[in-house]
Design a protein that fits this description.
Length: 523
């Protein structure tokens, strides 16, 4: 298409530049295209009543012309001008969720051209919450037809920079209104059938819709999962052109690299991704790992990007498309992503992840052996560093067949946990109940036992003192996991010293658990 010289405007919802908005509205009214912010993703807008504007939108996006557009209105009253079939239930729906991230499909009125609706007799309507969007619609004097403001096949745009990347030179103007708050496209509900149906999950949940509409169908969010695994990945162009799984043909919202979702318990997922990433790296791939704040430090290979706290689904949703685009920029050609979700946005996140993915992988569980292997953390008195290490290791290990002990080299009188150790552990959510320090006994060192000392001098003492402790089963924790420094005794230090010691132990123990479990999982 011809190159346009794109005008750029910048404003915030609380500080709208009315002159710039006036100019943008003139462009829409004159048949041009303006990319603008909404609370879900950026939209690529044109006059919804103008068949030529719809054609231009398809051209700018590089999208097939039969894909219908969402018509955006500034307030609920405008709905009756473009759609039929309104009812008290629909009014209740718009009352409750508009302005907001909900798109409603209704029979269209004649004033909406078939070019806008992709030839359908129905129209998708949404009243966005974003003030810039609504002011733009008002000033344009017409509803605005707008798909997401991305090139076809690419992730939707949630930042101004994404829009520039995809559409600069292809549209008449772009309004920079900051980052999209939600970051996933609106929920679409089709109310033209007997029972309303959610066609695309989003921020407004099915349960919320049911409160207003009663019965609501929910298409499985698992619409088109490829179900391929790593080994069955298509190898040549021929196969690419004739995909076997529908998920490949309709891959959507996707990064350029091949995305694999990995499902399972957190520890299993981390181990499996480490293994897959290492293998892919050795095959010459540029590997991406789509991680969370909680797991990112445990990945050892590839470009690791953090989507946010695994318990903060809104943060992850807002980051999803930007993360995909970062992988593109960094040249990742294969990406492993944790299958993140959550209570409110789980359906929407899973839907977008699955549409973007080539396949879903299940992380294997570690093998349970009949003989319990014993891990013993050892230090001088056995009531500080070894206590932290054993509690941390136990928490990481998720229902295992490992026995984890904390022991002292010399414990004349069993003592409770060191007070500062206890304070640090409690503030990190670890249980200290019933703890007393215990002397290591030679009989506790069996064939499958591994001993981990905190200092090299103590490791030597253990080997010298206990006949069953040898160079083969008694390790310095830090060097076993590839760290350089010993774990120093915090004794005599303040609470902060103990806190720092705890963090050092946490990091070593995390690596230790990954290492041991990897051996148990993959032999
Ligand atoms: O959050 C959003 O909805 C964003 C912002 C810009 O509002 N827009 C958006 O538009 O995601 P788009 O074009 O990327 O997705 C619109 C979806 C498509 O899957 C399309 O097939 C569906 O809505 N759609 C539109 N009109 C429809 C209709 N009459 N019947 C069924 N599906 C329709
Ligand atoms: Mg789209």
């Amino acid at each position: 298409m011809e190159h346009l010289s794109t005008e750029h405007f910048r404003m915030t919802e609380s500080n709208i530049d009315s002159e710039a908005l006036e100019r943008a509205a003139d462009i829409i009214a004159g048949g041009g295209l303006v990319a603008f912010p909404t609370e879900t993703v950026y939209g690529l807008g044109g006059n919804a009543f103008d068949p030529m504007a719809a054609k231009r939108i398809y051209e700018a996006k590089g999208r097939p012309q039969d894909n219908p557009l969402i018509v955006h209105i500034a307030d609920s009253d405008a709905l009756s001008e473009i759609a039929e079939g309104l009812s008290p239930k629909i009014e209740a729906l718009t009352e409750k969720f508009w302005p907001g991230p909900l798109t409603i499909i209704l029979p269209k009125k004649d004033c909406v051209p078939g070019e806008t609706t992709g030839g359908l007799q129905t129209v998708a309507v949404r009243c966005p919450r974003n003030r810039i969007a609504r002011e733009l619609i008002k000033k344009s004097g017409c509803p605005i037809a707008a798909p997401s403001a991305n090139r076809s096949g690419r992730p939707s745009t949630t930042k101004y920079s994404h829009v520039v990347e995809d559409l600069d030179g292809r549209v008449d103007a772009i309004i920079d209104g900051g980052d999209a708050k939600i970051g996933l496209e609106s929920t679409i509900v089709d109310v033209t059938g007997e029972i309303p149906a959610v066609l695309r999950p989003g921020y407004i949940t099915v349960d919320e819709l049911r409160e207003v509409l009663g019965d609501v169908w929910m298409d499985s969010p698992v619409e088109n999962i490829g179900g391929l695994d790593f080994l069955k990945e298509p190898k040549d162009e021929e196969q690419e052109a004739h995909p076997k799984a529908p998920g490949m043909k309709y891959r959507h919202y996707a990064p350029k690299g091949k995305l694999y979702l990995v499902q399972g318990a957190e520890g299993d997922v981390v181990r499996y991704i480490n293994k897959l990433a290492d293998a892919a790296r050795q095959e010459g791939h540029t590997v991406g790992v789509c991680a969370t704040t909680d797991t990112k430090d445990r990945y050892r290979f590839g470009i690791v990007l953090d989507m946010g706290q695994s318990t903060n689904e809104e943060q992850m949703a807002a980051a999803l498309y930007d993360t995909f685009r970062q992988f593109d920029t960094l040249g990742a050609d294969i990406i492993y992503a944790e299958y993140v979700g959550g209570k409110r946005l789980g359906d929407a996140l899973h839907n977008r992840l699955q549409k973007a993915a080539f396949g879903m992988l299940y992380a294997p569980r570690p093998m349970q052996s009949s003989r319990r292997r014993r891990i013993i953390f050892v230090e001088g008195h056995g009531n500080a560093r070894s206590a932290m290490a054993s509690a941390l290791f136990e928490r990481l290990y998720e229902g295992s067949d490992l026995e984890v002990l904390s022991r002292g080299i010399v414990v004349q009188f069993p003592e409770p946990m060191n007070q500062k150790t206890e304070a640090v552990m409690v503030s990190n959510g670890l249980s200290v109940e019933g703890f007393v320090s215990k002397q290591l006994k030679d009989s506790e060192i069996e064939q499958d036992t591994m001993l981990f000392a905190m200092e090299e001098a103590q490791r030597k003492r253990i080997i010298a003192r206990f006949p069953s402790a040898t160079e083969k089963n008694t390790y310095l924790l830090s060097s076993y996991v590839g760290d350089e420094l010993e774990i120093m005794d915090p004794y005599g230090g303040n609470l902060q010293t103990y806190g720092i010691c705890f963090e050092v132990i946490r990091s070593s123990v995390q690596k230790l658990s990954d290492k041991i479990l990897e051996e148990k999982t993959y032999g």
